[in-house]
């Protein structure tokens, strides 16, 4: 079996002196999708931020391609696309300007055609409108357009489907399946019902610490 792109063993995390989760093991290989599940407050966002190198308050080991993420941090970050639960876009910029700015931080991504990515998320008619004039779902779509331009082998998506309508969720499902078929690895969390063949899941409830047991 090929070595996992990202592997974590014995992860535990405390926040505000409460044990959020403990004993979390996971492995994500090329072509696989792992869905992290659990109720509000279970620690899904916290776990995804830990995996993305954005939160250091944890115990356990995380390996990127078999090596400690601490040792290969730069390589790891170059190969990661993380989209958090906020759209993370600049409201005064247009969708086109936002995409160009996002890509400037990720030189590995395809630069063209930005319009094609906006078309894929049905935002082409809004390409030149400041984002603060867009709806919540449209702003989320600006962030998700980034997925159509990404070369990074690992995607970590926190609540990527928030505010997206049913048709939008379906086309994202197909995009994620296509990505898996092309060898991409995906870790995501969402409260939406998803239909993605081959998806695996990790239930944080099985690793609950005292935070939810109170
Ligand atoms: N910045 C923070 N500082 C301190 N504690 C935090 C912080 N963010 C989250 N927490 C704690 O961690 C717990 C888990 O939060 P987290 O956002 O990881 O849960 P979640 O499973 O993603 O929830 P949801 O489904 O509501 O998005 C929260 O209940 C909160 O107590």
TrEMBL record:
Positions of the ABC transporter domain: 6-214
Domain of life of the organism encoding this protein: Bacteria
Annotated SUPFAM superfamilies: P-loop containing nucleoside triphosphate hydrolases
Gene3D superfamilies tied to this protein: P-loop containing nucleotide triphosphate hydrolases (3.40.50.300)
InterPro entries found in the cross-reference section: AAA+_ATPase, ABC_transporter-like_ATP-bd, ABC_transporter-like_CS, ABC_transptr_haem_export_CcmA, P-loop_NTPase
Alphabetic keyword roster: ATP-binding, Cytochrome c-type biogenesis, Membrane, Nucleotide-binding, Translocase, Transport
Residues making up the signal peptide according to the UniProt record: none
Pfam families: ABC_tran
NCBIfam families xrefs: ccmA, PRK13538.1
PANTHER family assigned to the protein according to its UniProt record, in alphabetical order: ABC TRANSPORTER I FAMILY MEMBER 1
Record-given protein name: Cytochrome c biogenesis heme-transporting ATPase CcmA
Organism: Marinobacter halodurans
């Amino acid at each position: 079996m090929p070595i996992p792109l990202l592997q974590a063993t014995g992860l535990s995390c405390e926040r505000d002196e409460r044990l959020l989760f403990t004993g979390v093991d996971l492995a994500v290989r090329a072509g696989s999708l792992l869905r992290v599940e659990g109720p509000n407050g279970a620690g899904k966002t916290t776990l995804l931020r830990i995996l993305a190198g954005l939160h250091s308050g944890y115990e356990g080991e995380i390996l990127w391609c078999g090596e400690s993420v601490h040792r290969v941090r730069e390589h790891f970050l170059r190969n990661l696309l993380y989209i958090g639960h906020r759209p993370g876009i600049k409201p005064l910029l247009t969708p086109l300007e936002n995409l160009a700015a996002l890509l400037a931080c990720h030189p590995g991504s395809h630069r063209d055609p930005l319009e094609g990515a906006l078309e894929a998320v049905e935002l082409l008619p809004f390409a030149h409108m400041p984002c603060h004039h867009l709806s919540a779902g449209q702003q989320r779509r600006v962030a998700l357009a980034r997925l159509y331009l990404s070369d990074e082998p690992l995607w970590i998506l926190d609540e990527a489907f928030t505010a997206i309508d049913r048709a939008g969720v379906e086309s994202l499902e197909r995009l994620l399946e296509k990505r898996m078929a092309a060898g991409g690895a995906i870790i995501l969390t969402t409260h939406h019902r998803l239909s993605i063949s081959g998806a695996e899941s990790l239930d944080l409830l099985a690793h609950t610490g005292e935070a939810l047991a109170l």
